[in-house]
Amino acid sequence: MSELMPLFLFIGVVAVLLLGYPVALSLGGTALAFALAGEALGWFDPSFLEALPNRLYGVITNETLIAVPLFVFMGVMLERSRIAEHLLDTMAMLFGSVRGGLGISVTLVGMLLAASTGIVGATVVTMGLLSLPVMLRRNYDPAVAAGTICASGTLGQIIPPSIVLVLLGDVLSSAYQQAQLEMGVWSPDTVSVGDLFVGALVPGLLLVGLYLLYQIGLAVVRPQAVPAIPAEERPAGRGELARRVVSVLLPPLLLVVAVLGSILGGLATPTEAASVGAVGAMVLAAARRQLSLTILREVVRQTATVTSMVFLIFIGAAIFSLVFRGFHGDDLVTEFLTGLPGGVVGAVAVVMLVMFLLGFILDFIEITFVVVPIVGPVLLAMGLDPVWLGVMIALNLQTSFLTPPFGFSLFYLRGVAPPGVGTTQIYRGVLPYILIQLAMLAMLALWPALATWLPGLIYG
Fold it and tell me: Do 371 and 355 meet the contact criterion of CB atoms below 8 Å apart?
């Protein structure tokens, strides 16, 4: 019975979550309850929990994780300064003359917001509030409009700089070193958040390209579902349009290029680049006269809220991880994955399926902190590339966030969608994008160089 305790612990956490308790408290509280029960039965050594203070101190002193509040600040500041609204209006003017132009605009703005905020919920809600009423007013098919917004909003999972990739890169770095030490490599290689950013760039842009190809194809096959903006509602002169494009599109684009370019060029670490982004977002807000003490207070408060949530989940996940290891759960996982038919391919397939299903009930933060430290060392010890594995995980979670009936992105949009847009229409609208996501996952699985080529080229 004692050897099944790790499985019971995992099931217990899921059950408590389904009862509606907060994730961080569910992880920590359930793990401590199992630890007490295990100690009473003689199955758990409480000395495992003595490592908790060192782990938490390691989080506090981890420079990489400082990037989290800085990127959150950058995203919230850009959202509060109404840059998303201006971007959407300008893109609609730029592409509105063609069928499907609004959908293309939403996708491109979603990509820019993803590169600016990295927060899926904020992007989906913002795009839903701004673009869904406009698309419906232009007689867009409600399913097409909803699917485009949901899919564009989840690009924050994979387009760097992404908070998902920051957290995933930090966890995978520890898992990679642990895997190499277990293999007898006493001078282990390292993998950084910057490596993951560079590795995700090509797959992320390729995914955006596939979205755009689908929308262009839809405009050809079903033109009535994606009508163009009437000529009388578009700007009269090209000069006016060019001026708006330069004034609205160029500043946030330069900010994204400055953040990503400094990382890709080796001029700054992700944390230093995040500070550049935070200051740049304030400069953009000030230039648009949207920076005031009230707005700054709101941005700081929301940044503190999101950051506190992330680190509280980390504490709960650290307790869960220690108790899980105390019950020899890591040995159980290693035996299970290494004993699967198909070797590495079978192990990766099972892990990806489990993460996909967990994406219905857990956010990416919990999966990154709870699941990746358990399965990561095992998979990496099998010889997998850590950058490829990280990008696969990010893409996989992005797909699960889109998949009915439990995808987080669907719930975010449902909360802000007008009453006339039904849940079934949202589900129907995301199905083509789910197929695109699965195709992208298959391409990455077949051609790992999509994720590993650029880091190898830049970092040698």
Answer: yes
Residue 197 clears pLDDT 90, i.e. is over it = no
Instruction: Take residue 301 and report the two structure tokens written for it.
Output: 């408060």
Check if the beta carbon of residue 365 is closer than 8 Å to that of residue 132: no
Mean of pLDDT values over 93-115: 79
- 57: how many CB neighbours lie within 10 A of its CB? 10
What does the pLDDT look like over 235-279, one tens digit per residue?
556 667 777 777 777 887 788 788 878 877 778 888 888 888 889
Q: How far is CA 292 from CA 276, 285, 296, 299, 379, in A?
A: 20, 9, 6, 11, 49
HEC profile for the chain?
CHHHHHHHHHHHHHHHHHCCCCHHHHHHHHHHHHHHHHHHHCCCCHHHHHHHHHHHHHHHCCCHHHHHHHHHHHHHHHHHCCHHHHHHHHHHHHHCCCCCHHHHHHHHHHHHHHHHCCCHHHHHHHHHHHHHHHHHHCCCCHHHHHHHHHHHHHHHHCCCCCHHHHHHHHHHHHHHHHHHHHCCCCCCCCCCHHHHHHHHHHHHHHHHHHHHHHHHHHHHHCHHHCCCCCHHHCCCCHHHHHHHHHHHHHHHHHHHHHHHHHHHCCCCCHHHHHHHHHHHHHHHHHHCCCCCHHHHHHHHHHHHHHHHHHHHHHHHHHHHHHHHHHCCHHHHHHHHHHCCCCHHHHHHHHHHHHHHHHCCCCCHHHHHHHHHHHHHHHHHHCCCCHHHHHHHHHHHHHHHHHCCCCCHHHHHHHHHCCCCCCHHHHHHHHHHHHHHHHHHHHHHHHCCHHHHHHHHHHHC
Give yes or no for a cis peptide into 404 (omega within 30° of 0).
no
Q: What separation in angstroms does the CA of 416 have from each of 23, 84, 337, 413?
A: 24, 16, 41, 5
pTM, two decimal places: 0.84
